[in-house]
Write a structure and sequence with these properties.
The structure is a single chain. Helix 6 packs across helix 7 and helix 9 packs antiparallel against helix 10. The protein is α+β, with helices and mostly antiparallel strands. It folds into two domains: about 170 residues, endopeptidase domain like (from Nostoc punctiforme) (endopeptidase fold (from Nostoc punctiforme)), CATH 3.90.1720; about 40 residues. The protein is elongated. Helices cover about 50% and strands about 15% of the residues. A six-stranded antiparallel sheet has the order 5-1-2-3-4-6. This is LRAT domain-containing protein.
Length: about 220
């Protein structure tokens, strides 16, 4: 199910990139933004986050495949499209870069400091938030689950690296894996493996029973 959703979203992203080039840049009122603000915009597969540095500049951690296959800085500096982003996620190549508000938002609506309402930690001083983001500009280790754009902005603004998106995803996966359906399917798979091998051993029988039983009890 998750694989199908990812593939469908990927092909949707391909179409979005083509259409995005035809859409005029959405005007943003940057006068309401302050240095250190946490900006949030929806992208194709997830919500993207950044830290406003002032003067129409946003620092954000974003995956990008282009630096892997090209050394042309003028091309790399252009807005990261969904194609580049998704392939960067797969390759685990990312950096904290500074873009204009328009390029960061990619035509989407911007939410400002909405995390302040859901995070239990109070935000740091605005200047400290911006300084933290500026110190991390450049290539950086990336993981979709363990260090993504949300981890980056949460560290900068609240002093703690966390991701609500990752937590929600892990809960969904846990619910899917530790389900009664998974227990039944694992039992069928284990029995099929025993039949395929053509031999029955104590160890094989125990694994055939223990794995589905464990998933069943945990569901």
């Amino acid at each position: 199910m998750f694989l199908l959703q990812f593939l469908s979203s990927f092909f949707a992203a391909l179409i979005t990139d083509i259409n995005q080039q035809k859409v005029k840049t959405v005007p943003y009122d940057i006068s309401v933004l302050e240095r250190g603000d946490l900006l949030e915009v929806p992208r194709t597969l997830f919500t993207h986050f950044g830290i406003y540095l002032g003067n129409n500049r946003v620092a954000h951690l974003i995956p990008d495949i282009l630096p892997v296959i090209s050394a042309d800085q003028s091309t790399i500096s252009k807005m990261v499209t969904n194609n580049r982003l998704i392939l960067g996620v797969i390759a685990k190549k990312a950096s904290v870069r500074v873009d204009s508000v328009e390029d960061f938002a990619y035509g989407a609506e911007i939410l400002v400091n909405s995390m302040d309402r859901v995070c239990s930690r109070p935000p740091l001083q605005s200047e400290e938030v911006a300084r933290r983001a500026e110190k991390l500009i450049g290539s950086i280790e990336y993981s979709l689950l363990w260090f993504n754009c949300e981890h980056f902005v949460m560290f900068c603004r609240y002093g703690s690296s966390m991701s609500f998106q990752t937590s929600q995803f892990c809960r969904k996966v846990r619910k899917m894996v530790l389900s009664r359906t998974s227990s039944f399917l694992s039992l069928v798979l284990c029995v099929w493996m025993v039949v395929l091998v053509g031999s029955v051993s104590v160890c094989g029988v125990l694994l055939t029973l223990i794995i589905p039983f464990t998933i069943w009890m945990a569901s």
